[in-house]
Write a structure and sequence with these properties.
single chain, Rossmann fold, Methylamine Dehydrogenase, Chain H, five-stranded antiparallel β-sheet, 40 strands
Length: 779
């Protein structure tokens, strides 16, 4: 699963980390007769959708699937239905007089310069910039910090409508080459190319059928590692299930047919492999994951000589148990630093000597704290640790004394001691001894000391952090609800912190404020929520409110700037973001409290958020809209079924709506770590109990609904939304509209052109203006 996120420049040897930003939550109580059922909208006539006779048997339970035919996105009947639904939605939205003014203001707000944090290779700085309304951000390069930037790659020249996106980039260590990936119409499938940085011209290299891949160069600058699947030979290449991921090495100037297979596991079709070359060029770190499960394995290859890497050296299985989250942070010689939640639900960093990697020999260098450690990287001689403190960022620097870091070196060419082949014998420590916390400034195990905290301008989110071991220059991005994404340059040694790029946005931030509140969920759990609105709003229940949440896959919802949300608040709206269980805001326990058989907690948290907003008179049911996408779209579909009386409008976007069949398409099988699978009898029971598609009840008055999907979404295939909308339209008992907006030449959200984003936001807000009976003052 994914949530829309800002693009980062990925350097071959840097571990840039970006806090993931997902989607929606809401809940409400209202007295009297004001309900979502009150509307003057005339009943719509929906496109005909034939009901088939498909019935499936799940462990002795028969489940009808009458709209199964809508899963075939290329069938003539499906295309005709899509065309008819889009025509209905377009005609409905065209009757809303405020829409042109909404789009005009969105265009004004969107028209500001946006930047990514630079990455540096051999004195060259690479970063993205969008002047404002460009469909895709442009990649620039500077041949020095004070040099003039020049365009290296402009994806807007690759397609007239901006539907070819630059989805991944990595520069070679000498800064000579850029490897980059392109995605067409929002697909997860990517195609890799290589560009000469000096001339800004492509080499002949083309690498196809790449998916869920990073790009990482060897230090000889002759090639890079990447991940791919075999080319599909039959069926629908968009909806086919993806299995048997493989890690390859491509040498610059050679055809893809000569690429070297580095690692695969024919016995493990669901494993995914991601390679990363360490800053010293000595090792290839292979992170092994199973779908979206946060637990991972760590393997590596000793490349022998960074100048002449031996990519066919043996793969060493350093951590080969799927028992915890493990993420490589950096290394000093043979000492690896790994972030893990093993015996530390909120995260810690351990040092592992790869010549003696048994767990009882691990040394905790950054212990668990009260805040969730969500990521870490290296810069200069420091480990830079990114924490979440009640769902907002806190970045801390830990210094290791060079003479006291238990660094170990062995002669070039000498291989590490090979762990036993039996994964169960890699280590067997099951100690649950309590973690001992230390005061600020006290030396930690392995010579690491908490040196200080990054000064931030407000409560918000630190996203990209680009640094490198041995280089004191670090760049990072900061954003918040009222703080447009700003790029900072930080000197790790002198601790100076300067603005590198600050975007001007045409709105008065001083007129708004953000509050963080805490409310109580159904089972007594304390849940945080951010509420942003104009200063001085009256808490009288009359404010249009948009509640947004996600609640899954360890993804944290943190403060982020959105031009669209500014437009919503200018129209008098309140924007609320709830931090539901299932996310990563408070570490492992918070995530696990909203997954598998505990998924209902996510829906309860959302409903409690909505009830809080109503109880405290921020809004009322007729004025309360809910929105979520992907896993958040599932959330909206589920709570609409469970509390249709609670919401004034609903916006389920690219949602996982069929919880009994999601694993049968593309990468859907990877989500079973969070959801479970209908193929398991016990898991089938709770999936059936909340599946949005299967809990729609005919004769119910559902709130006004505008669903969103895209014809090229190969993450959450559009059949989910197609079947859901057809079922909801047939079941709706009142005049509330049930519409679907089906975007063409677009996917799950990543790489969507600016023009499409503005059109989509204009339709979203126009729908809410009408259905929440708003009377906004429009510019």
């Amino acid at each position: 699963m994914s949530r829309p996120s800002s693009r980062t420049f990925s350097r071959s040897n840097s571990r840039a980390f970006t806090l993931r930003s997902p989607l929606v939550s809401l809940l409400v109580f209202v007295a009297g007769t004001l309900t979502a059922q009150t509307t003057a909208t005339p009943r719509l006539t929906y496109p005909a959708a034939a009901r088939g006779t498909q019935v499936d048997d799940y462990h002795g339970t028969s489940i009808a699937d009458p709209y199964r035919w809508l899963e075939d996105v290329d069938a003539p009947a499906t295309k005709a239905w899509v065309e008819a639904e889009n025509k209905l939605t377009d005609s409905f939205l065209a009757t809303i007089p405020e829409r042109p003014a909404i789009k005009n203001r969105l265009t004004q707000l969107w028209n500001y310069a946006r930047y990514s944090a630079p990455s540096k290779e051999n004195g060259r700085y690479f970063y993205f910039q969008n002047t404002g309304l460009q469909n895709q951000s442009v990649l620039y390069v500077q041949d020095g910090l004070d040099a003039s930037p020049r365009v290296l790659l402009d994806p807007n020249t690759l397609s007239p409508d901006g539907t070819i996106a630059l989805s991944g980039t990595a520069a070679s260590d000498d800064g000579r080459y850029l490897a980059y990936s392109l995605s067409t119409s929002g697909s997860d499938w990517q195609e890799l190319h290589v560009r000469d940085v000096r001339s800004a011209r492509d080499l002949p290299d083309t690498v196809k059928w790449v998916k869920f891949s990073g790009i990482t160069w060897t230090q000889d600058n002759k090639g890079f590692f990447y991940s791919r699947y075999d080319e599909p030979t039959s069926g629908n290449k968009m909806t086919n299930t993806n299995r048997f991921h493989k890690l390859y090495y491509h040498r610059v100037g050679q055809s893809q047919s000569r690429d070297e297979l580095v690692y695969d596991r024919p016995d493990q079709p669901d494993w995914l492999f991601n390679g990363n070359v360490t800053d010293d060029g000595q090792y290839l770190i292979i992170t092994v994951s199973q779908g979206t499960d946060v637990r991972r394995r760590i393997y590596f290859i000793d490349l022998d000589n960074p100048g002449k890497p031996q990519i066919d050296n043996p793969v060493v299985r350093l951590i080969d148990k799927l028992d915890a989250e493990y993420s490589f942070v950096g290394n000093r010689g043979t000492m690896f630093y790994v972030r893990t939640d093993r015996n530390a639900p909120k995260g810690r960093i351990v040092a592992i000597n790869i010549d003696n990697p048994r767990e009882e020999r691990w040394n905790t260098i950054i212990p668990e704290s009260k805040d969730a450690l969500v990521d870490a990287t290296t810069a200069g001689d420091d480990i830079v640790a990114n924490y979440l403190q009640d769902a907002h960022s806190s970045v801390r620097f830990f210094s290791g004394a060079r003479g006291d870091d238990r660094r170990e070196q062995r002669p070039r060419g000498q291989q590490p001691q090979q762990p036993p082949r039996n994964p169960g014998n890699i280590y067997d420590d099951t100690s649950t001894a309590p973690i001992v916390t230390r005061d600020r400034g006290q030396q930690l195990g392995g010579g690491f000391t908490l040196r200080g905290e990054l000064p931030l301008p407000a409560v918000g989110t630190v996203g990209e952090i680009h640094g490198r071991q041995g280089d004191n220059e670090m760049f990072y991005s900061f954003t918040s609800f009222l703080y447009p994404t700003t790029i900072y340059r930080y000197d790790v040694k002198s601790r100076s912190n300067d603005v590198f790029r600050a975007p001007p946005v045409a709105f008065d931030a001083a007129a708004y404020e953000t509050r963080q509140v805490f409310y109580t969920s159904k089972d007594g759990t304390r849940v945080p929520m951010f509420i942003t609105a104009k200063k001085g709003i009256q808490l009288d229940g009359s404010n249009p409110t948009l509640l947004y949440a996600y609640g899954g896959f360890n993804i944290s919802m943190t403060p982020t700037f959105s031009a669209a949300n500014i437009d919503w608040m200018e129209m008098g709206g309140i924007y609320a973001l709830a931090n539901l269980r299932g996310g990563g805001e408070y570490g492992k326990d918070w995530h696990e409290g909203g997954m598998l058989a505990k998924k209902q907690n996510v829906f309860d948290d959302f409903i409690a958020a909505a009830e809080y907003l109503v109880k405290e008179k921020y809004t009322s049911t007729p004025k309360l809209a809910i929105r979520g996408g992907s896993n958040g779209g599932l959330l909206i579909g589920a709570v609409m079924n469970q509390r249709p009386d609670l919401f004034g409008a609903a916006l389920p976007e690219v949602g996982v709506m069929d919880m009994l069949r999601f694993q049968k398409f593309t990468i859907g099988w990877a989500w079973t770590s969070d959801y479970g699978s209908s193929e398991n009898p016990d898991q089938f029971k709770y999936l059936r109990a909340y599946s949005p598609l299967h809990n729609i009840k005919p004769g119910t008055c559902y709130p006004p609904t505008l669903a969103f999907t895209a014809d090229h979404d190969d993450r959450v295939v559009p059949g989910h939304t197609f079947k859901y909308v057809a079922t909801l339209q047939a079941a709706e008992s009142c005049a509330n509209p049930v519409l679907v907006r089906i975007e063409t030449k677009a996917g799950h959200g990543a790489g969507k052109p600016t023009s499409k984003l503005i059109d989509e936001a204009a339709d979203r807000f126009a729908f809410l203006v009408k259905e929440l009976h708003m009377r906004p003052t429009l510019r």
